Amino acid sequence: MSGHLIGTGLTKRYAGLVANDAVDIEVRPGEIVGLIGPNGAGKTTCFNCLTGAQKLTSGSITLDGKVITNLPASERAGMGMARTFQQAQLFKHLSVEENLLLGRHRHYGASALRAAIGLAGGAERKARDLVHSIAAQCGLTEVLVAPVGDLPFGTQRMVEVARAIVLEPTVLLVDEPGAGMDSTESAYFGALLARISRERDMSVLIIEHDVAMILSICDRIYVLNFGKLLAQGTPADIRANAEVRAAYFGSTVQEAAV
Amino acid sequence: MAPGVKNLKNAADRGVKLTGGPLMSGKRVEAGGVLILAIGLLVWPLVTPEVAHFYGSLSAIYALIGLSLVILVGWTGQISLGHAAFVGCGCYFGAKLLNNDVPLVLTVVLIGLIGAAISLILGIPSLRLRGVYFTIATLAFGAACQQYFFTRSEVRGIAADQVPRANLVGIQTTTDRGLYYAVLVVLAIALVLAYNTRRTDVGRVLFAIRDSEQAAAAMAIKIAPYKIGLFAASAALASIAGLFYGMLFQATPAPEQFSVLQSLFYLAMPVLGGAEALLGALVGGAFLAVGQPLVNLFDVRLFLMTSIALLLTLLSGFDGVTGALKAGRKAIADAVRGEPVRYGSFVPHEEHDHSPPRVHATVGESPPPVGSVVRVRIVPGVRP
Ligand SMILES: Nc1ncnc2c1ncn2[C@@H]1O[C@H](COP(=O)(O)OP(=O)(O)O)[C@@H](O)[C@H]1O
Ligand SMILES: [Mg+2]
Fold this sequence. Notes:
The complex is a heterodimer of chains A (258) and B (384). In chain A, a hairpin with a 2-residue loop joins strand 1 (5-14) and strand 2 (17-27). Chain A has helices at residues 43-51, 73-78, 96-103, 112-116, 121-137, 153-166, 183-199, 211-217, 235-240, 242-249, 253-256; strands spanning 5-14, 17-27, 32-36, 58-63, 66-67, 81-83, 171-175, 203-207, 220-225, 228-233. Chain A is of the alpha/beta class. A two-stranded antiparallel ribbon of chain B has the order 1-2. In chain B, helix 3 runs antiparallel to helix 11 and helix 4 packs across helix 11. The A-B interface holds A 51-53, 72-75, 77-78, 82-83, 85, 89-95, 97-98, 101-106, 108, 110, 112, 115-118, 120, 123-124, 127, 142-143, 145-147, 149-151, 163-164, 167 and B 8, 18-24, 192-193, 196-197, 199-202, 204-205, 207-208, 210-212, 214-223, 229, 344-346, 383-384.
């Protein structure tokens, strides 16, 4: 099984600000790992460093034993690392279906030349079959032909997640997928993500503010505060951790975690 | 049945279609239109006097250049001011090859390769830069070709080289009509290649890169090869057009014909014809071909005419002539179906009132409490 992502001593400095300070993070094959922390704690920065969208100041990253610290984002994606963005980044000139089909790029299986002379029918059909099945699983069948710009916010986020899943990643990083969802929607989303992770042997690293959802679906959780790792452990550990409670949950953890 | 499902069915009964999805615009209508257009393009030279065939050939050549810009501007959003230089390279190098008895089919391929090769020298360093820097690089390239390269006698010939009218496989090009058909074949092939590309992975990738390079990279897309490759394809098309341009005049034209100014006129083609639809190239090509020789090349009237046409296009808000036609077709279809209002892909129920909300009366304390007041009108409908 693959999808083993390890970040060691991840450090990212912006002028005068240490957004990530020697963060050690590990996602083991098949695990769902949560990354939580207050706004500005450096969670998105950590994602960007892991996926190659930003360069690390220092530290190293391996995926399934291979060092990927200096690989560009596209190559990391090609190795099976998919992600979504905190601000959904959909291709707005394309339909939902075409957006999802782009996830299929690395498995497309027909060269530009073959496609140009009209011989990509098989590849296109295969890509569409996969896209349609994932769209069905994510409840997007009804909107496949719609231009993405017309969709409600929550649906756009779902499209982005589905597009990442079409990539058939071994590890998926999702950044605040629940933003703008109510608690029912986000619980539903969490369950869906957990199921897809199980079915596809896909490890997941998820940033999320909905504590109830995080505590219910994650195997392990990391807590980040001011760029430093504050705590890590199972949901039970995190719930019990007094420091975390003070820094992040305040006193509402008991209520939030029911 | 859940109410949502029923509503969806109602919408489908009314023939409601979503807007915008590039792959789902009335397929049959489109195929029929293309067929009629193809027959028209094949038949018209048989029933017109010879003088028209010259303009026909020139239109087809310009349409090739227009297509090269439609894929560059329309698909990637990059603007080139050096395309006339590619046309020039195709013209001058093509003349040399033809004068050395290289068959025309082979010349077309070779000129395409030469154009692509030159574009790599320009594109590899500059396409890593964004938008305007790329345009400036093409501007410098265009100016340098016009001033220093095309003016050399080894390139253009002492006064002008003869350009023979070789056969394209079986098609005789000695008459303007024959040349027209030869260019039409090349244009048709280019259109088919472009159409297939747009509908498959590469086409989607190009649009993805245009919309968000960051998200494209997260889809395992290597960005540079696509930008460079598309630019090379565009340059190859422009160069091939240049080869036929020389054949049309049967002599190598003066370097001014391939100036940066001419590149600007070329850019009018995707704008006037429409950069979304491939066929926009044909409209733009015909416009420039008829406009440019009628009035003198670079005559002030041409500037005026082009500026006015561009202004009207931009003011109209349509994506060129093809965009206007598409909108017109949709409007007619909607009128026939009685499709009243649509908000994006959201289809409101027919019987609803769509006039803007008005305040009829306010009740309560005055002045009103602090804070903003938002009035909403709830419009029932379905999103199919
Ligand atoms: N490109 C940037 N340049 C400078 N500072 C940044 C940049 N991106 C993020 N930061 C800062 O880094 C810190 C961590 O941000 P971020 O990773 O987005 O936090 P989170 O996702 O946990 O809310 C914040 O203080 C933010 O202002
Ligand atoms: Mg964030």
